[in-house]
């Protein structure tokens, strides 16, 4: 994804809020690294748009608190798929 980092930061922040997306999902959608997403929304966005930054921060905090559940569900699904094969 080309363009100015400032514009990208706002686009990424908006996407995360609208889709309740994780950093990983956002990185995959925009074809950039997770590090880039994290830097854009954690550092650049904080200076550019504090309101959007706070909203993104809340979504990412929620995702972080739920990640152990998603991991457990993925593991469960993996072994169910192996059992059916």
Short structural description:
This protein is mainly α. It contains 4 helices and no strands.
Low-pLDDT stretches are none
Structural Rg: 15 Å
Structural class comes to mainly alpha
Average pLDDT figure: 92
Give the number of DSSP strands: 0
Would you spell out the secondary-structure blueprint of this structure?
Blueprint: H1 5-19, H2 23-30, H3 34-48, H4 50-84
Helix pairs in contact: 1-3, 1-4, 2-3, 3-4
Q: What do you see in this structure?
A:
This protein has 85 residues and is an all-alpha fold. Helices cover 86% and strands 0% of the residues. It is built from 4 helices and no strands. The protein has helices at residues 5-19, 23-30, 34-48, 50-84. Helix 2 packs across helix 3 and helix 3 (34-48) runs antiparallel to helix 4 (50-84). The chain is elongated. The N and C termini lie far apart (39 Å). The model has no long low-confidence stretch (mean pLDDT 92).
Record keyword descriptors for this entry.
single chain; 85 residues; mainly alpha; 4 helices
């Amino acid at each position: 994804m080309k363009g100015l980092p400032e514009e990208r930061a706002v686009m990424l922040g908006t996407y995360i809020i609208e889709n309740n997306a994780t950093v990983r999902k956002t990185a995959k959608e925009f074809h950039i690294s997770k590090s880039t997403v994290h830097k854009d929304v954690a550092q650049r966005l904080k200076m550019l748009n504090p309101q959007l930054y706070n909203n993104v921060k809340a979504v990412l905090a929620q995702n972080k608190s739920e990640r152990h559940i998603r991991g457990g569900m993925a593991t469960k699904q993996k072994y169910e798929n192996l059992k059916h094969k």
